[in-house]
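Task: complex structure prediction.
Instruction: return structure tokens for all chains below.
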Amino acid sequence: MMWNITSDRPIYQQLTEGLTERIVSGIYPPGAKVPAVRELAAEAGVNPNTMQRALADLERDGLLYTQRTSGRFVTEDEGRITQMRETIAKSRIEDFLSSMRQLGFTSEETLRLLTQTANRKGDLQ
Amino acid sequence: MMWNITSDRPIYQQLTEGLTERIVSGIYPPGAKVPAVRELAAEAGVNPNTMQRALADLERDGLLYTQRTSGRFVTEDEGRITQMRETIAKSRIEDFLSSMRQLGFTSEETLRLLTQTANRKGDLQ
Amino acid sequence: MMWNITSDRPIYQQLTEGLTERIVSGIYPPGAKVPAVRELAAEAGVNPNTMQRALADLERDGLLYTQRTSGRFVTEDEGRITQMRETIAKSRIEDFLSSMRQLGFTSEETLRLLTQTANRKGDLQ
Amino acid sequence: MMWNITSDRPIYQQLTEGLTERIVSGIYPPGAKVPAVRELAAEAGVNPNTMQRALADLERDGLLYTQRTSGRFVTEDEGRITQMRETIAKSRIEDFLSSMRQLGFTSEETLRLLTQTANRKGDLQ
DNA sequence: GTGGTCTAGACCACA
DNA sequence: GTGGTCTAGACCACT
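Output:
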């Protein structure tokens, strides 16, 4: 996953979101060491302070913890990660259903369309 | 539906999208007269020229047509409307599936979660 | 080619047409950088916004594309240009034949007259 | 043929042109009586004085003549009509060739395209 | 009153 | 410097 920083939202928020995805999707698995702030900042092309803020947010959310001398690590509490993953998923699902309802699709229709698409994709990927 | 203009994308694009939704969802049914430019602009709290641009876009897309002095009307070509509705739906579905895949959900899992949510909602609405 | 803005049709339309001719006739070849909006506007003696609208139309038609900060360029898709060239030619031919028919000339007579003229011109140019 | 008065050129000029077409195309044949000024003016939706000016122009060109008490008539000099017809045709042909040259078509190419179109039309009409 | 056009001038993001 | 967006306000044609 590459960084795709846009100007519309605060940068640190976008960083937080991206890092969260890396954790809940297992790119950074439980207990793994996270790259150094400077490294992550360089990768994303942002100021280290901005990346620092994003990482602090993740710590506040319990997804990361810091070991003074050795660096930052993904939490070993898989329940915490699963919970976050489901919270985000739930929110995206709600948004999606609501946006489809805006177009005049009932939940049933949306479900049917999505099933079709998922099956079609399933053949390819 | 109220206007909810944010600053992240061009206003005229958001207007275009909102008006499109009104049409494909049947709020503005085929053949119906659309409120005057100045009226819509006032409703959305934008400059009439900005609303004009959004309406011009819809005209280009074949969703509206203009009668010189009597106003703008939704196309009577229901096929065009249906087509647009499905194009948008398809795009939203793809985006949704892709965003769920980012979180590490397969299409099957996404489908299962969405089914649960839709059913739960179904009880309420 | 100089600009020759008359008052009967919207200026932006005339600009669109003139720019299209520059492209399909190769004055602005495929991939070439188009002068800046403000420059073209000055050349034509119109407001930059008016020129902007004309350029936006060409972009919509796929004859131009924009690179955010470096300027506008003619499409490299020569097929698109050829297609546009032929569309315009076809339309002019139809108009011409129809206007000659107004004068009571059949297509055959028109063809004969045009052949004569073309041959005569051929000697000169 | 209906009147299609636009605002870009003097109205009387457009009237002159339209009437000339009616004569050279034989809608008003040699020697025929032309409708009364008031009638023509009403038909075109213009002031009788404006139509009068157009008719005066045609008289100056030798396409019409007036008989004091009985009205205006198309000239019986068919040579004059033919000459006018060819003058106009020649001008339209030049304009057409020039406009095609603007698009980058040589006279030969234009000729070829027009031949194709004329033949195709020939089948239908 | 309707929509359409045009201008002048401002501000923004990007690099 | 580039293009993009938005506003405010004017004028036009049509009916």
